[in-house]
User: Fold this.
Amino acid sequence: MSKVQSSRWYPTSNQIDTPEKMQNTLRIMLDQHYALQDAHDKLMAATSAPSEEPSSPYPPGSGPTDTMICGLRVQPVDTTTLSNGATVKWNKSTGTFIVS
Assistant:
Protein backbone atom coordinates (compact mmCIF):
# COMPACT_ATOMS: atom_id res chain seq x y z
CA MET A 1 0.00 0.00 0.00
CA SER A 2 1.45 3.35 -0.96
CA LYS A 3 1.60 6.18 1.51
CA VAL A 4 -0.63 9.08 0.53
CA GLN A 5 0.93 12.52 0.83
CA SER A 6 -0.93 14.76 3.22
CA SER A 7 -1.20 18.35 2.10
CA ARG A 8 -3.39 21.21 3.19
CA TRP A 9 -4.18 24.07 0.91
CA TYR A 10 -6.02 27.26 1.78
CA PRO A 11 -6.89 29.73 -1.00
CA THR A 12 -5.48 33.21 -0.70
CA SER A 13 -7.48 36.36 -1.31
CA ASN A 14 -6.02 36.87 -4.79
CA GLN A 15 -7.19 33.35 -5.74
CA ILE A 16 -10.82 34.22 -5.06
CA ASP A 17 -11.06 37.89 -6.06
CA THR A 18 -12.74 37.33 -9.44
CA PRO A 19 -15.50 34.91 -10.41
CA GLU A 20 -13.14 33.06 -12.79
CA LYS A 21 -10.48 32.64 -10.11
CA MET A 22 -13.12 31.61 -7.60
CA GLN A 23 -14.39 28.96 -10.01
CA ASN A 24 -10.87 27.64 -10.56
CA THR A 25 -10.20 27.60 -6.81
CA LEU A 26 -13.46 25.79 -6.15
CA ARG A 27 -12.60 23.23 -8.84
CA ILE A 28 -9.23 22.55 -7.14
CA MET A 29 -10.90 22.15 -3.75
CA LEU A 30 -13.55 19.79 -5.16
CA ASP A 31 -10.88 17.73 -6.93
CA GLN A 32 -9.11 17.29 -3.59
CA HIS A 33 -12.37 16.45 -1.85
CA TYR A 34 -13.39 13.85 -4.43
CA ALA A 35 -9.91 12.29 -4.43
CA LEU A 36 -10.16 11.92 -0.66
CA GLN A 37 -13.67 10.49 -0.95
CA ASP A 38 -12.53 7.98 -3.59
CA ALA A 39 -9.60 6.90 -1.41
CA HIS A 40 -11.97 6.46 1.53
CA ASP A 41 -14.44 4.40 -0.55
CA LYS A 42 -11.60 2.21 -1.83
CA LEU A 43 -10.36 1.63 1.73
CA MET A 44 -13.86 0.80 2.98
CA ALA A 45 -14.38 -1.66 0.12
CA ALA A 46 -11.07 -3.36 0.91
CA THR A 47 -11.80 -3.67 4.62
CA SER A 48 -15.40 -4.80 4.26
CA ALA A 49 -14.70 -7.40 1.59
CA PRO A 50 -15.30 -10.92 2.89
CA SER A 51 -12.06 -12.67 3.65
CA GLU A 52 -11.46 -16.20 2.52
CA GLU A 53 -11.12 -17.80 5.92
CA PRO A 54 -11.70 -21.47 6.55
CA SER A 55 -15.11 -22.49 7.81
CA SER A 56 -13.61 -23.54 11.15
CA PRO A 57 -12.58 -20.79 13.59
CA TYR A 58 -9.69 -22.98 14.75
CA PRO A 59 -6.29 -23.21 13.06
CA PRO A 60 -5.66 -26.52 11.30
CA GLY A 61 -4.76 -29.26 13.75
CA SER A 62 -5.95 -27.48 16.88
CA GLY A 63 -9.73 -27.58 16.70
CA PRO A 64 -11.98 -29.76 18.82
CA THR A 65 -12.15 -32.36 16.05
CA ASP A 66 -8.36 -32.33 15.51
CA THR A 67 -7.18 -32.98 19.04
CA MET A 68 -3.70 -34.51 19.10
CA ILE A 69 -1.30 -35.35 21.90
CA CYS A 70 2.28 -36.10 20.88
CA GLY A 71 1.09 -36.60 17.31
CA LEU A 72 -1.56 -39.16 18.27
CA ARG A 73 -5.22 -38.37 17.64
CA VAL A 74 -7.42 -38.11 20.71
CA GLN A 75 -11.20 -37.69 20.61
CA PRO A 76 -12.44 -34.43 22.13
CA VAL A 77 -12.99 -34.60 25.87
CA ASP A 78 -15.17 -32.52 28.15
CA THR A 79 -12.64 -31.62 30.83
CA THR A 80 -15.37 -30.86 33.38
CA THR A 81 -16.35 -34.54 33.51
CA LEU A 82 -12.82 -35.95 33.96
CA SER A 83 -11.86 -37.44 37.28
CA ASN A 84 -8.67 -38.79 38.80
CA GLY A 85 -9.53 -42.29 37.60
CA ALA A 86 -9.83 -41.34 33.91
CA THR A 87 -8.60 -43.97 31.46
CA VAL A 88 -7.28 -43.75 27.95
CA LYS A 89 -8.47 -46.40 25.49
CA TRP A 90 -7.44 -47.00 21.87
CA ASN A 91 -10.26 -47.16 19.32
CA LYS A 92 -8.88 -49.22 16.45
CA SER A 93 -11.77 -48.48 14.04
CA THR A 94 -11.32 -44.70 14.19
CA GLY A 95 -7.62 -44.68 14.98
CA THR A 96 -8.06 -42.42 17.99
CA PHE A 97 -7.61 -42.54 21.72
CA ILE A 98 -10.71 -42.07 23.89
CA VAL A 99 -10.37 -40.54 27.34
CA SER A 100 -13.13 -41.70 29.69
Notes: The chain has a mean pLDDT of 79.
